């Protein structure tokens, strides 16, 4: 992430390069795994309103997903998706002293995966637009420690395989608790617990996450 100016606006071009390993097993599939590089994401927020004195910010962020990650049509599990995607996100942040409220709305449109393995032959997989909303509330306990509570909603996104609707549109809800600690001037430790408490389509999870970041 890099902060700079584009005309009168503050911008922060970023690149998310994700590497990992995942495995899948169960009664309906044979054991399989995938490792390597996932599809990278290029993004940049443009802050149309950037007023720290009034604790008010408003920005637009496009996320471009580039389909160059690890992918094999004959595996049920892949780190890459073999398709382009564009997520447009609008975010409003308002502070009230040490208390902050973030309101976020977004829509994601997907390209087609024309190399999708159906188990018999190669077909085309399509997906409708996926939309969502987020509400984040945080409180600064000290200058280096803050707590947050977040709500996530996602809807739409039904897929179609070889012209057949999969009846898998989303209507999903989740809550997440966050605690972040600043360590010195350049380090941050972030701990999160997320509960997907209502899932119509997709994987329902309860997860603990940790992130260690270095800022320069």
Average per-residue pLDDT, rounded, comes to 93
What's the β-strand tally? Answer: 17
Shape: globular
User: What is the topology, as strand order, of the major beta sheet?
Assistant: 1-2-5-6-7-8-11-12-15-16-17
Using only C-alpha atoms, the radius of gyration works out to 19 Å
Q: Regions with pLDDT < 50 over 5+ consecutive residues?
A: none
How would you characterize the largest beta sheet?
11 strands, antiparallel
State the secondary-structure class.
mainly beta
Instruction: Encode the helix/strand succession as letters.
Output: EEEEEEEEEEEEEEEEE
Strand residue content = over 45%
The total count of helices amounts to 0
Distance between the termini: 9 Å
Share of helical residues: under 10%
In short:
Helix content is 0%, strand content 66%.
Describe the structure.
The chain is mainly β and 216 residues long. It has a domain at 1-87 and 112-127. Helices cover 0% and strands 66% of the residues. The chain contains no helices and 17 strands. The strands form 3 sheets. An 11-stranded antiparallel β-sheet has the order 1-2-5-6-7-8-11-12-15-16-17, with no helix packed on it. The chain has a 4-stranded antiparallel β-sheet with strand order 9-10-13-14, with no helix packed on it. A two-stranded antiparallel ribbon has the order 3-4. It is globular. It starts with a strand and ends with a strand. The model has no long low-confidence stretch (mean pLDDT 93).
Helix and strand layout, with pairings?
Layout lengths: L3 E3 L2 E8 L2 E6 L7 E6 L3 E11 L4 E10 L19 E12 L2 E12 L2 E5 L4 E6 L2 E11 L4 E12 L2 E3 L2 E2 L4 E14 L3 E12 L7 E9 L2
Antiparallel strand pairs: 1-2, 2-5, 3-4, 5-6, 6-7, 7-8, 8-11, 9-10, 10-13, 11-12, 12-15, 13-14, 15-16, 16-17
